[in-house]
Every structure is written in C-alpha cells, then in structure tokens.
Design brief:
The chain has 118 residues and is an alpha+beta fold. Helix content is 24%, strand content 36%. It contains three helices and six strands, in the order αββαβαβββ. A hairpin with a 5-residue loop joins strand 1 and strand 2. The N and C termini lie far apart (49 Å).
Length: 118
C-alpha cells in the first residue's frame, strides 16, 4: 500500500466515525517548509486540494506541527490563528503526527456548523 493510499484509508475511517466532516492528512516536505496534503476527504475537498500551507505560515495545522501539541478549537471564528478555507466550518482539530520526537505532519478534522433558522 502506498503512502497516499494509506492516508486515504485513514481519512475514510475518520469520515466513517465522525460523519459530516472534512479532514486532511498533511506532511512536512523534506525539501522545504511546505505542507503536502497527502489526502483529503469530505465535501470540501475540491476547495482545498490546491491550497498551499507552510510550516512557518498561519493556521491551526502549522501551529500543531510546530508545537507538537494537539490543537482543538470549538469555535474557529473566535480564534485569531484560524485560517478559513471552508466557509461552513465551525470547529477544527489538528493532531500532530510523530515518529519518535519528530513531528512529520498532522491529521486535520473540521466539523460543519449548524445553521439555525430564524
């Protein structure tokens, strides 16, 4: 199984367990500070497939990778570090992926906001 197939399998399990969500698996490029999106799942994949992220750039995923600590934000609109790339997102969870003490990437999960009718 290739790395891309493995990433897609992981995201399929996340989608199955959490339902209406979007998730991505990103790794740090060996040659640069670019974060490479190995796989994406959910209704927003077309919106994010060409989005570039950098290890030294803004956003919750780069923050989780730099710190090595899980970032869990219940209301992304109230967090100044959040970078929007899916308008319906309400919350985001970024889990650093480690080999030993080295952070190699992140699993990112976003949940959809529930819009209340007036």
């Amino acid at each position: 199984m290739s790395l891309h197939e493995l990433a897609q399998s992981i995201l399929a399990v996340v989608q199955q367990e959490f339902g209406q969500s979007n998730c991505s698996l990103l790794v740090v490029s060996r040659d640069s500070n670019e974060l490479l999106r190995l796989a994406a799942a959910g209704p927003y994949t077309g919106q994010v497939k060409d989005k570039k992220l950098s290890l030294d750039g803004p956003g919750l995923v780069p923050q989780a990778i730099r710190s090595g600590v899980t970032v869990n934000v219940g209301n992304v609109r109230s967090n100044p570090d959040y970078v929007s790339n899916w308008e319906a997102a309400n919350s985001e969870l970024a889990i650093p992926l480690k080999i030993g003490n080295n952070v190699i990437g992140s699993l990112m999960y976003k949940a959809r906001s529930r819009r209340l009718s007036a």
